[in-house]
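Appendix B: a complete holo record

For completeness, this appendix reproduces one full record from the ligand-bound portion of the collection. The bound molecule is magnesium ion. The inputs are the chain sequence and the ligand SMILES; the output is the full three-dimensional arrangement of the complex, encoded as structure tokens. No fields have been trimmed.
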Amino acid sequence: MKGLLEIENLTVAIGDKPLLTGVTLTVAPGEIHVVFGPNGTGKSSLIKAIMGLPPYQVTSGDVRFEGESILNLAIDERARLGIGLAFQQPPAVRDVSLAALGKALGIDKDKLHDEATQLGMRGHINRGLNDGFSGGEQKRSELLQLLLQQPKLLLLDEPESGVDVDSLKLLTAVIERLFQRDLPIRERTVGGIIVTHTGSVLKHLHATRGYVLVNGRIMCSGAPLDIFDQISENGFGNCLAEARIKEKIHDFLKG
Ligand SMILES: Nc1ncnc2c1ncn2[C@@H]1O[C@H](COP(=O)(O)OP(=O)(O)OP(=O)(O)O)[C@@H](O)[C@H]1O
Ligand SMILES: [Mg+2]
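The structure of the chain with magnesium ion bound, as generated:
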């Protein structure tokens, strides 16, 4: 089946500093892939590089959306194709409100008000986007924007970090909706990548595959909840040890 997103041997740098090396990952429609990893290891850089944000330079490899390379497309062109990003730390845009964004996307006012009310953001729609929003409000604002945009490919960077228990339930329900969890598996067209440290969004989502990114490389992969349990118990040590053994076997076989 043609991938919704195909990342092939991707290498990303800022200037001469490499951030990602040889990352390969395919997301088919309906699939959710989960990226774990220590702080500062390149998870957000991967998400932002797929969206085409500066200053992340793709130095080799490819990123294809629905079979076509998107590396030469601008950010807005990628968004128009149906790629949507929820930032770990969203930038504030003082001169653009959620209401203005909804209008630009051709969203009916009542729909915007309904969605905003459900996310507890009704009082925020005329304020500057993320301008002075609390940490939890920023997370809800990011998901509200995605609900309006309805992307085919969702890139969610720590959508639940710093969120209280009640908001977490709300956000999880929205994430399930965005990923069409109300539809039978065969009818789902939306797929994506979620970066998480807490794993709490994974409980009901039945994510497809998990990866551990270390120093810009995918070191381990497996069932997302198994990886999460292992990290929770033993930290990233097991994966690093496994990766070192794999490297040694690789070196040995190469002679
Ligand atoms: N715009 C930038 N300019 C300079 N260095 C950057 C930039 N963006 C990322 N980096 C560096 O790249 C490395 C990876 O950062 P990244 O934000 O991708 O980490 P992460 O895995 O998402 O970490 P966390 O779990 O803390 O969110 C870090 O050392 C970071 O300082
Ligand atoms: Mg990050």
